[in-house]
Amino acid sequence: MSFDALGLHPALFKALAELDYQDPTPIQAAAISPALAGRDLLGQAATGSGKTLAFGLPLLQRVLQGGEGRRLKALVLAPTRELAAQTAEALRDLARLLPGRLKIAVAFGGVSINPQLMGLRGGCDVMVATPGRLLDLHAHNALGFEALELLVLDEADRLLDMGFAEELQRILALLPARRQNLFFSATFPAAVQGLADGLLREPLRVEAPAEA
Ligand code: ADP
Ligand code: MG
């Protein structure tokens, strides 16, 4: 399996080569084509399996091909500031090599909200955020979700472990109902399965076992 069999936009394929990614990991090989086709995904994948590009490549392709203007088209929710920052950095590394000058914003709590508010003044195409700070930004009218096409929940089990269940429900209620959802978790206890069941529409299950 190689990246060129997955139906990626030529600009993304070229960017992967420039960043020296050779072949997709198993979760990338399983997730990318169906995600590009618009399906909801339920991904079980351990840390280090390459989830960022598994959702990041379909996300960037969707944003590249999406509606006009700098509007929020894709939202990634992550459990911690470190994961949000890492994910945003990985998406920016690719986006820098793409046409369209995509703006990828990142937001997390524990730091002043003011620079994050300032940074959103010109809008953004993609937001990577922890749930609480995302709601704070929305309460400051810094974000609109009308153009949102894609939601990613990264490390859903950790999002729930960290007590974000209520914030997640409040966020979901703000998003357009018609959207694609990519849901990733390392484990599927009942609460995570319940969250997935409430969110996903005929999801395709993709897996990357821990030993892979
Ligand atoms: P996860 O989110 O599943 O924990 P990451 O997406 O952070 O995993 O990827 C883990 C590491 O593997 C990162 O350093 C990333 O750059 C690297 N990586 C991801 N995909 C590939 C690939 N296709 N080829 C080589 N390295 C990769
Ligand atoms: Mg990750």
TrEMBL record:
It comes from Roseateles asaccharophilus. Belongs to the DEAD box helicase family. One of its GO terms (molecular function) is ATP binding. It comes from the Bacteria. Keywords: ATP-binding, Helicase, Hydrolase, Nucleotide-binding. Residues 32-206 form the Helicase ATP-binding domain. One of its GO terms (cellular component) is cytosol. This is Superfamily II DNA/RNA helicase. Residues 1-29 form the DEAD-box RNA helicase Q domain. Transmembrane segments: none annotated. A motif (Q motif) lies at residues 1-29. The chain holds residues 1 to 212 of 419 of the full protein.
